[in-house]
């Protein structure tokens, strides 16, 4: 083969190989690519997937605020059992295995409102390192008008020189208050404490009921409006319970009840607590009523009673523990005598959203 012929043969073989390569490439594209993808085109970048930003912070699973409500302590210099029960409650609270941001005392702190009863109360409270303590007055805190010179109950001793005004001043002095009704806020959650302002020495018609002045009712409405935050609970403490819906109260009840309920109507997530009835959480009586607000009847630390209002279980000392979460409020009855929660007194209330 001449040199020229050899070169032509090499060029033929090269062209054939190029052609075979192109045919093979087309066959591969037809097998693995479809339609338009088989047509040569510039590579397109992969689309970027959008990431959703969180719309709100996740709800906290830990309580935002927690506190105890103790009612009807009835501390008496003449009855050491009442002091023993208060010590049981405070021993439990100061060794509690969960947060306690405050303690509310909802009336009948003493049995007769005398100086000796308040002295006994101060002696007990001063033995403990406690979180903030706030209180309102109950009817028994005005009972000093019934006590004779021998420090005994004696209705015949009236008048004995004691007055409702003196009872009010003694209560305010004990807690360092300027007024009988007050508010307390901690960790952005507020508690309003309404207080009985007069007893039978000044207003015989009120009997054992809770009378609130125009000034106190105006303050209550103003503070509700100022403190209310949609989606967040607001707490109200009274001593005497409310009467039937649509009526004003009489003796042993909150007297200006119609106005009280009307003031609460515009607001969601309001929790109202009362004392006075002393009813054992385990005696089957109702302790929670749903109105436009959540209404709870506490038991008693000093004298827990059965449904016949008898002190059948003399060793019991009960109260409420309140935990505030981002989406609910949990309320649990506590038996201080054995440091246990009461299964019959457990409620979990979902908060209505803003």
TrEMBL record:
Transmembrane segments: none annotated. The keyword Translocase does not apply. Residues 67-279 form the Calcineurin-like phosphoesterase domain. InterPro entries: Calcineurin-like_PHP, CNP_phosphodiesterase-III, Metallo-depent_PP-like. The keyword Membrane does not apply. Pfam families: Metallophos. Keywords: Hydrolase, Iron, Metal-binding. GO terms for molecular function: hydrolase activity; metal ion binding. Belongs to the cyclic nucleotide phosphodiesterase class-III family. This is Metallophosphoesterase. It comes from Paenibacillus sedimenti.
């Amino acid at each position: 083969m001449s040199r020229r012929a050899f070169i032509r043969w090499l060029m033929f073989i090269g062209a054939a190989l190029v052609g075979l390569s192109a045919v093979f490439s087309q066959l591969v594209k037809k097998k693995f690519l479809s339609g338009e993808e088989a047509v040569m085109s510039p590579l397109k970048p992969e689309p970027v997937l959008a990431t959703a930003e969180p719309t709100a912070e996740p709800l906290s699973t830990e309580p935002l605020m927690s506190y105890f409500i103790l009612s009807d302590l009835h501390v008496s210099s003449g009855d050491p059992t009442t002091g023993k029960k208060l010590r049981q409650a405070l021993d439990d609270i100061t060794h509690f295995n969960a947060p306690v941001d405050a303690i509310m005392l909802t009336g009948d702190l003493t049995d007769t409102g005398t100086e000796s009863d308040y002295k006994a109360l101060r002696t007990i409270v001063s033995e403990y390192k406690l979180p903030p303590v706030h209180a309102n007055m109950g009817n028994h805190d005005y009972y000093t008008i019934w006590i004779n010179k021998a420090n005994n109950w004696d209705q015949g001793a009236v008048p004995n020189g004691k007055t409702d005004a003196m009872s009010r001043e003694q209560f305010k002095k004990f807690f360092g208050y300027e007024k009988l009704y007050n508010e307390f806020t901690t960790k952005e959650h507020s508690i309003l404490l309404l207080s009985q302002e007069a007893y039978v020495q000044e207003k015989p018609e009120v009997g054992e009921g809770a009378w609130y002045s125009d000034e106190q009712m105006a303050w209550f409405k103003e503070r509700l409006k100022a403190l209310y935050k949609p989606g967040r609970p607001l707490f109200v403490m009274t001593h005497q319970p409310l009467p039937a819906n649509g009526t004003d109260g009489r003796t042993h009840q909150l007297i200006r009840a119609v106005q009280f309920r009307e003031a609460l109507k515009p607001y969601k997530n309001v929790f109202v607590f009362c004392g006075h009835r002393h009813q054992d959480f385990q005696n089957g009586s109702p302790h929670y009523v749903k109105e436009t607000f959540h209404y709870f009847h506490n038991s008693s630390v000093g004298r827990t009673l059965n449904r016949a209002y008898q002190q059948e279980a003399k060793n019991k000392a009960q109260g409420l523990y309140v935990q505030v979460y981002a989406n609910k409020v949990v309320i649990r009855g506590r038996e201080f005598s054995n440091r246990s929660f009461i299964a019959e007194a457990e409620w979990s209330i979902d908060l209505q959203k803003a």
